[in-house]
Amino acid sequence: MSQVRTRFAPSPTGYLHLGGLRTALYTYLLARKNNGVFILRIEDTDQERYVEGAVEEREVPGAIQLIYDSLRAAGLTYDEGPDVGGDYGPYIQTQRKHLYLPHAMQLVESGHAYPCFCTKEELEQRRQAAVARGETFKYDKHCLGIPKDEAKQRMASGEPYVIRQNVPLEGHAGFDDLLYGRIEVECATLDDNVLIKADGLPTYNFANVIDDHLMGITHVTRGTEYLSSAPKYNLLYEAFGWTPPTYVHLPVVMKDATRKLSKRYGDPSFEDLLAMGFLKDAIINFIALLGWSPGTDREFFTLDELVEAFDTKGLNKSPAIFNMEKLVWFNTEYIRKLEPERYLELVRPWFDQALSGTQMDYERLAQLMQGRTEVFNRVPDMVRFLKDMPEYELDLYVNKKQKSSIESSLDALRFMLPVLEGIEPWQESVIHESIMEAIAAAERKNGPVLWPLRIAISGQLSTPGGAIEIAYLLGKQETLRRVRAAIERLANAAQ
Predict the structure, then answer these.
(1) Which residues are marked as active site?
(2) Whole-model pTM?
């Protein structure tokens, strides 16, 4: 068997959507599993879709560069590509323009293609006529009958033209797919698609066939939206006398049972997820399992472990449903497994977002937060109370489990205030010892004291750490200020 060569061939239309990321991942895994070559090729011949600077009103530093950065951020290192070189370049389609027309003319000479001079207006008239007859429009080979000499003369004179594939009117066209098996269609149902457009650039359908052959691609991994086009691709391979690659068509990634995952509808891209604070490893692990199973109940894989486990037999024919809750769960588990130092490094910018200007002990806060962090962009809202005391309802003091009421909370805080005032130095261990000794000496229970204290200094039901940890993080003066303010509010309410 020849060396496996796979390619990921995106159009530079903006941020890498999750379906594209999954295709890139599976393509990468297939290559690495077989000690093969993973290639990046940029398919930019569709100028209407090409975006250099912006996508959907979002500024992008360059769409092609974004593809490079996204793949590297995902850990999907390619062996050949526009920015790394290789023996089969150029790896950007518009830089390969000189290759396509000669191949198209070769097909014209062999009778497998022909120039078409029909104008857009003429084609539209025929399309409307077909619709009026209740028929699906298909090009009628109008220009096929033009004598070759006449066609060459019209082309040489500068008359606009395209080159169309001459699909047989009889017989079948088909291909073999690793996932779906043998697929065949009647040639009579296929259209004579354009191979070379009027601007001289190839269509996607033609360019990818030429490029895949010239680059020695052995396996093509792509979405099921190309299933209907694949028979026409194989007719081209047959016309040239080339061996087609092995195909793997992947089911789409769905938002839900009815809608495809799409950036157009606000679904996140890979870059969006990274910006939100999802870990790259968690995203890749999650994406790998969207349509592929290792054949076991195992859920957690590093990229190297995915390479080892990957087998196309584990691919699923059914569309995969993108479940954000599942991704959050994966991310939470990955965050919990981080080394504390790495977690602190990653969370620090999110702490800064909420706590800039404070003298907060980030290391201690990180210890309290790591087990509670699901996604990093949720961290600022979870810790913002440490800088700015939120407004809160006094009902928070009422807790049946802790047997806490407005009146008992007021009593507890009045009891705690002198204890807190007397604590020196303001260290967590000293705070803990002083508070617990005072509670024990007064023969009080912990809950009815610590619950109102935590509410008084945090203003919220859920916090990273309890009253003692929060008091330490706030510092003595801020803790006392908040307790005194709470006593005043409770006293006014109790009157």
Answers:
(1) 263
(2) 0.90
